[in-house]
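Weekly puzzle thread! Below is a chain. First person to post its structure in C-alpha cell form gets bragging rights.
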Amino acid sequence: MKSIRAVCGLCVVVVIASLSTAVAAEFPRLMNFQGRLDDTAGVPVPDANYTVTFRLFDIPTGGTALWTETQSIATTAGVFSVLLGDVDTIPPYVYYRDSLYLEVQPNGSDPVLPRSRLTVVPYARRAHDADLLTGATVLDLEESNEIDAQIATHTANSSAHHSKTVDASELVIGTLPEGRLPQGAIDSTEIEMESVGANRLADEPGIAYTFTDLKTLSSTMAVMDSAIITVPRGGYIFIIANGWFYRLHTQGAGDCIATVSLSGSRVSHEDNHTAKFTVLSAEVSGHHTQNFTVSRVLPVGPGQTKVYFLGDLSGTGTCQVQKAHITTLYFPTPYGNIDITAQ
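Winning reply:
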C-alpha cells in the first residue's frame, strides 16, 4: 500500500495503489490497479468517468516508457479499479526488467510523482515460467537485454538442452541454413538408431544390384541383363558392370571380337560405354580370358530407370561373358561437375 500525492489543476489526486497479477492456466498478462480520486479539499470526486493514462518504466525518473495505456475509469465515492493491460497488452519482456516503476497521469494534469516502484507480486510472471520448467520463449524475451545472456548460458550448458524430438512440423524450409550447422555439429551419437528411416527421407541415396553367371555371345545383339532402379526424385545414377570374357580358341580358326556395353537402348551399343575382347586367328590355341569394367553416369527423373547390359560377337567361333555384376547407385545431389557427353 502506498500513497502518492500530486497537484493537478483544481484537484488533488490521491492514488492508493494495490497491484497484483491475475493467475490462471493461461496466465493473462494483466495487473489489478486500485486508487481514489480526491478534489483539492481531499473530498472524493463526484461519481463519473475520468480518463487516466498509465505508464511503466524501468527507471524512477525520465527515460522512455516500456508500455503506455489510457483508460476511462468509473469512480464510486472516488474509488476506482482497473486492469492494466486490458486495453494495450503489456509486452512479455517488460516482466524481465530488474525494476519496474508505474506512472499515473489523470487527464489534463501532470504525471503523479514520484513513480511507484512495483515489487514482488507482478513478478509472479517469472515464477510461472519457472513452474513450466521450460523458461520463457524467444517471443517473451524480445527486446530484452537478457536474451543474449540467456542464449549464451543455454548454449554453454549441455545439461540445459531438452530431449524433445523435433519433427518435420517444427522445421520450416530455410530454418536452419548450412551456415547454422557447423561441421560435426550433429553426429551419430545424437540420432537414435532407426529414428530417421527411408520413409522420412524422400531423397536418400539408394542402390540396386543384379548378377549374371554366364552368357554366350553370338552375332545377334542380345540383352544379357538389365539394371533397374526406382528413385524418389530427380538426381543421378551411377552404373557399373564388371566380369570377364572367355574364349576357347583354336589357332587358325579365325578372328573373334566380343563387345559388351551399358546402353539406354536394347538394340544397339553406345560406343562411349563399351568394352571389347579380341582374339586373333593367329593366336595360340587354348583358353583366353580378359576382365572388363564398363561404367556410366546418367541424369534421371523420379520413377523407374532401366539400363541394358548388351553383348554381341563378330568373327568366327564363340565367346562367353562370365560372372557379370551390375551395380546401380542413386545420388540426389552432385558435388562437382558432371559432363555427361564425356561418359
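Puzzle host: Confirmed. Bonus trivia for everyone else. Residues 1-12 have pLDDT under 50 and may be disordered.
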